Amino acid sequence: MKKLIVRADRPEDQNRRKDYVTHGLESGFTSFILRKGDEDLENLGKMDVIYTEDGRFLDDSYELVDIDTPETQAHAMSLAGKKKAVIVTTSDWTIIPLENMIAKFGGTGTEILACASDPEEGKLFLTTMEKGVDGIVIDVDNPLMVRKFGDTLSGNGHECLTEVTVTAVKAVEMGDRVCIDTCSMMIPGEGMLIGSYSNCLFLIQSESEDNGYVASRPFRVNAGAVHSYMEVPGGGTRYLSEISAGDTVLLCDKEGNTRIAAVGRCKVEKRPLLMVTATDGKREYTVMLQNAETIKMVGPEGAKSVTKVVPGDKLLAKLDTGGRHFGMAIEETISEK
Fold it and tell me: Which pTM value belongs to this model?
């Protein structure tokens, strides 16, 4: 999960600084840069804080570098492996290509936090070279702008979903299945992107429809076997076995619109499983789901119970190329069966 930090130390007026914190908390942000002396602002909500005094960080494991010359560029690059994080400001990203910083800092343990003055700029920094920077510092002149970052950077976005064709549905042995209860209500057609292979994630609907046997649970996605991948905010993936209460997950609807949600509870239980196999015409992909009528897969015409899915049915999935290394997309030749 990328770090999103609101810079609230710039204004001279404390009430103005408080506005940045208030708008940040109401937009879902929990990390702030505050001035020494503004400790009382922590009473507004639970937050992580980095303090500054006279424009410098009190914690010397952080360093703010304003890159405006080749010399300051060289200094920023020299901090790789020496600091916990380098927070970079610049008015001209041609001075220090972001790609070079990402390459230089990779594997050193030092995070790159780029200051962004508008949401689109922040989004660009988070996706540069696919990996992007480690986080964004929201550095704006108007505290109302903090709210605009909320939608752009906190998961609201769009995924490209593709139709795949079911080739087989097979009952398999009992297995450990993960059920994810979120702190958000979902609607029919909305759920999570899940699959046995990270390059094909099927849209699995929430239990948002009544079926005559049990009441709807629109906060829940019966997500599949523990080995499965699921997409998380920021474009990465995690194994279902890793998900627990308090984590952030990505929700997606049949149009590809995404938003984020917090996990309230996660259950792993032994259940009978079905393996659904589908193809995009080039190769086959699978997903392991519980053998129960309440679990539904989403297709272009709507959701269908996994127990009713048959060869020839069309389903929606996110297709990708390459592979994954610790959840990050990488370009490599990979074969999975």
Answer: 0.67
